């Protein structure tokens, strides 16, 4: 079922929670609504569900205009963060609930309900827990039951609000994979809310990045990561270091630090955003950059080592984070308190007078040569 969202806006009193926004969701697509707290994700999801009315605009499911339809007539499935299972009912009764409350004309027979519940429990691989109560389940199991319950009425649209927010990282990852598999197998259309960029990028066919009640960018995960179209999106997708530079003699300067402008750069003042893995690190400045930093922390994180650094004799608002493969780290034997120099390999430049960034790259070979010199 496709979903068309057209000029939807929402006020709570004088506060504008959603500016008029539009979004076209294809049948069978999985869409992640990503944004910081208060950006309007849940409000938009609730308006799609019919739990909240919009001030303006309309919503269509396929050819059906559902703008004024009651939540129960929209036929959507929901999953919330806090499981929302009925504590006094068994797992099987919880899953059957949506079917039991259907109007008599639409309600399947008791045998059919029983069969459908068992099938759903098999699908979420928890048929052996049919007679347990929610208090006897783990968080991950509860959430799978919540999903089975949401799917019982065979909705064509599934809406999920931070479905895995309360779970630990490992279970979260497992459930994500499993939800994606189920989505692909059953072919429903899903919209889920998250403030976790990794979750959004991993699960979604397209990600909708929201801030302050409007849409900043809609893109496939790869495109979003490769071409963030604003500072906000860049910041929100994480792990960027920002160098604020003023142009002088073909270089960006900031205090005693400098970066040579690559050929493609316009001679403009602005901010260079560099991702944490886009650096060479050395014990001396290179021909391309003189960015001295002091090591304040060293944290091994999985396949990489993250160095936290503060500028020496230049200004930056944030601590810098640089991720190095273990090999590169071991070769250099960096220690806390030590001074080192970083050279960007690539970065996004936002000129002060521009909204959109330019992707810049320093030719790798040249930097390497300079590094060795
Ligand atoms: N019923 C309400 N009454 C008044 N203000 C509300 C109501 N619901 C939401 N808001 C406000 O609207 C804004 C958007 O809220 P919303 O819950 O949609 O954000 P969100 O992006 O989902 O945030 P979070 O990630 O924290 O859940 C917030 O500033 C919130 O305080």
From TrEMBL:
Domain of life, source organism: Bacteria
The ABC transporter domain, residue ranges: 3-237
SUPFAM superfamilies for the chain: MOP-like (SSF50331), P-loop containing nucleoside triphosphate hydrolases (SSF52540)
GO MF assignments: ABC-type sulfate transporter activity; ATP binding; ATP hydrolysis activity
CDD domains per record: ABC_CysA_sulfate_importer (cd03296)
TM spans (from-to): none
Keywords noted in UniProt: ATP-binding, Cell membrane, Membrane, Nucleotide-binding, Sulfate transport, Translocase, Transport
UniProt KW ATP-binding keyword: yes
InterPro entries referenced in this protein's UniProt entry, alphabetically: AAA+_ATPase (IPR003593), ABC_SmlMolc_Importer (IPR050093), ABC_transporter-like_ATP-bd (IPR003439), ABC_transporter-like_CS (IPR017871), CysA_C (IPR041193), Mo/tungstate-bd_C_term_dom (IPR008995), P-loop_NTPase (IPR027417), Sulph_transpt1 (IPR005666)
SMART domains (UniProt xref): AAA
PANTHER family: SPERMIDINE/PUTRESCINE IMPORT ATP-BINDING PROTEIN POTA, SPERMIDINE_PUTRESCINE IMPORT ATP-BINDING PROTEIN POTA
Record-given protein name: Sulfate transport system ATP-binding protein
Provenance organism: Marinomonas polaris DSM 16579
């Amino acid at each position: 079922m496709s979903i068309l969202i057209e000029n939807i806006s929402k006020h709570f009193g004088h506060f504008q929670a959603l500016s008029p926004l539009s979004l076209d969701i294809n049948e069978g697509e999985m869409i992640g609504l990503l944004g910081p707290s208060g950006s309007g994700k849940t409000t938009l999801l609730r308006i799609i569900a019919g739990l909240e009315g919009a001030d303006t605009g309309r919503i269509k499911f396929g050819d059906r205009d559902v703008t004024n339809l009651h939540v129960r007539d929209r036929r959507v499935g929901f999953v919330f963060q806090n499981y929302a299972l009925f504590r006094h009912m068994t797992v099987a009764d919880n899953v059957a609930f949506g079917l039991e409350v259907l109007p008599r004309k639409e309600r399947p027979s008791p045998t059919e309900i029983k069969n459908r519940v068992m099938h759903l429990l098999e699908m979420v691989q928890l048929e052996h827990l049919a007679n347990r109560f929610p208090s006897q389940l783990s968080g991950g199991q509860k959430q799978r039951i919540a999903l089975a319950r949401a799917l019982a009425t065979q909705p064509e649209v599934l809406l999920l609000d931070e479905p895995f927010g309360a779970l630990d990282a490992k279970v979260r990852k497992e459930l994500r994979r499993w939800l994606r598999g189920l989505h692909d197998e059953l072919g429903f259309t899903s919209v889920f809310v998250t403030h976790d960029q990794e979750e959004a990028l991993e699960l979604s066919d397209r990600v909708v990045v929201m801030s302050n009640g409007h849409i900043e960018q809609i893109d496939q995960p790869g495109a979003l990561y490769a071409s963030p179209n604003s500072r906000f999106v860049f910041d929100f997708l994480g792990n960027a270091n920002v160098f604020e530079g003023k142009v002088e003699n073909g270089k960006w300067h900031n205090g005693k630090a400098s970066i040579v402008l690559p050929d493609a750069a316009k001679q403009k003042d602005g901010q260079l955003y560099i991702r944490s893995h886009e650096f060479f690190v050395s014990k001396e400045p290179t021909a391309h950059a003189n960015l001295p930093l002091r090591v304040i922390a060293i944290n091994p994180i999985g396949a990489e080592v993250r160095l936290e650094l503060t500028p020496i004799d230049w200004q930056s608002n944030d601590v810098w984070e640089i991720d190095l493969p273990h090999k590169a780290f071991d070769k250099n034997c960096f220690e806390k308190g030590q001074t080192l120099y970083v050279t960007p390999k690539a970065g996004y430049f936002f000129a002060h007078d521009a909204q959109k960034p330019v992707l810049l790259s320093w030719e790798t070979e040249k930097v390497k040569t300079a590094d060795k010199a």
